[in-house]
Amino acid sequence: MTVPVTPTLLYLDNVTVSFDGFRALNALSLAIDHAEMRAIIGPNGAGKTTMMDVITGKTQPNEGTALFEGTHDLTALDETAIAELGIGRKFQTPTVFELHTVEDNLLLALKNKRGPLATLLSRRTNREQERIDSLLERVRLPAQRHRRAGELSHGQKQWLEIGMLLAQEPKLLLIDEPAAGMTDQETADTADLLRDIAKSKGVIVVEHDMSFVRALGAKVTCLHEGSVLAEGSLDAVSANERVVEVYLGR
Ligand code: ADP
Ligand code: MG
């Protein structure tokens, strides 16, 4: 009897994206496992954001394969369908509802299928309250639950937005430069939070702050000119001569 193989969570192979002949991604190949965290580094223009655009269906590759859980062809699906498969993306700027409380932001994210007003006016069920409580714990905001999101620090807003993504129960989270603009303590807490999330979900983090990348304790992929330049432990990638030349040494 053969042991069933769990397909890779995310599989990119030979993905190329051309803008007027310029290859933002050039035969990019990358695989992310279930419950794996991966840090993506590389100079500006390396293709990091374009890679996330391909995974989330914002950009169609000209060539290549992009599979989720082995069967879902991401190149054939639109952004909504990909989000529904369980791929969540966090952009650099937090997009929370500033005038609503932290709790209400999470409630809105839990029930995003109903209109926001109907959601806030309806009585929340015990089940919903339990989920809000557990999300608050997870993103370290129980003490802030009744504050308006607009009053939170930059770091706390980022965590709230991560909580809102977790409310959708994604299987893979894509996070762009979470540590930018954070205090040292917030940066350390964010690394803890992401490590915690990656115990049960795939997490791809694009980041420039090398001390933060170290705190993630994840495998690192360095992109350059739309391809993988180096991949491995942070120590191995940092010691790679080409990585030093195009990125770290500058
Ligand atoms: P990174 O996020 O690593 O800084 P990007 O993925 O944003 O890199 O960009 C990769 C390259 O593709 C850059 O040279 C950028 O100028 C180019 N690029 C990205 N998006 C577009 C677009 N819509 N049209 C033309 N060129 C683009
Ligand atoms: Mg970018």
From TrEMBL:
GO terms for molecular function: ATP binding; ATP hydrolysis activity. Residues 10-250 form the ABC transporter domain. InterPro entries: ABC_AA/LPS_Transport, ABC_transporter-like_ATP-bd, ABC_transptr_urea_ATP-bd_UrtD, BCA_ABC_TP_C, P-loop_NTPase. It comes from the Bacteria. Pfam families: ABC_tran, BCA_ABC_TP_C. This is Urea ABC transporter ATP-binding protein UrtD. GO terms for cellular component: plasma membrane. Keywords: ATP-binding, Nucleotide-binding, Transport.
